[in-house]
Amino acid sequence: MNKVDWTERFQGTKALPRAVRDRLLDVALIRDHTKGYQVFGPDNVPDSLIFLYDGTIRVSQTSGNGRDIVLYRVDAGESCVLTTACMLAEEAYSAEGLAETNISVVVLPKASFDRLVADEPAFRSFVFAAYSRRLIDLLRVVDDVAFGRIDVRLAERLLVLAGGDKEIAATHQEIASELGTAREVISRVLHDFQKRDLIAQSRGRIALTDKSGLRAIAEND
């Protein structure tokens, strides 16, 4: 895979001048990891920039009382905003990144990253543009947690998690972590959804019996 021009995979790197892309190909490495691998964790200072070539990384944070919240996901073709922020500030992570699937990551060592940012205006613009986009996404998460209606957010998340399927394998606690709230809150709203025949529940599984009804709730924001 190292012989593949991975810069074609990412919208930002594909738009860079050929000379800059060649420099990236010379210094970056491709690494494969299995599902469940900890890509980064709290208190680790990043030593490389990460581009996700394939798979999904789940980035979450744990509060002092032990409650988890999913900050965002990094999907194939994206970079990690938290890694970029911590590298620029030379600070440790405050969150954890776990591979939700088997993943392939492009690893750009910090020394090479620093040289490219200093030497190549096009690469510098790409880094900060990608950082800005993901930061806006992260602020939307904060806004949702602080101000969003939980029934609207839950209906939306159930639809996203299900995708084209009609069933989700997830516990109430896992969904609570997705939405940054308490398990009891999720259980209460799911019970309400079930009474309204929008879903059906069994141990560790949720069947979406009325997707159109859930979609109507999700769009009621």
Give your account of this protein's structure.
This protein is an alpha+beta fold and 221 residues long. It is built from nine helices and eleven strands. A four-stranded antiparallel beta sheet has the order 1-8-3-6. The chain has a four-stranded antiparallel beta sheet with strand order 2-7-4-5. Strands 9-11-10 form a three-stranded antiparallel beta sheet. Helix 6 packs across helix 9 and helix 7 crosses helix 8. The relative contact order is 0.13. The mean pLDDT is 86.
What is the gist of this entry?
This protein is of the alpha+beta class.
What's the layout of helices and strands?
Layout: H1 11-14, H2 18-27, E1 29-33, E2 38-40, E3 48-54, E4 56-62, E5 68-75, E6 78-79, H3 81-89, E7 96-99, E8 103-109, H4 110-119, H5 121-147, H6 150-162, E9 167-169, H7 172-179, H8 183-195, E10 199-202, E11 205-208, H9 211-218
Antiparallel strand pairs: 1-8, 2-7, 3-6, 3-8, 4-5, 4-7, 9-11, 10-11
Helix pairs in contact: 4-5, 6-9, 7-8
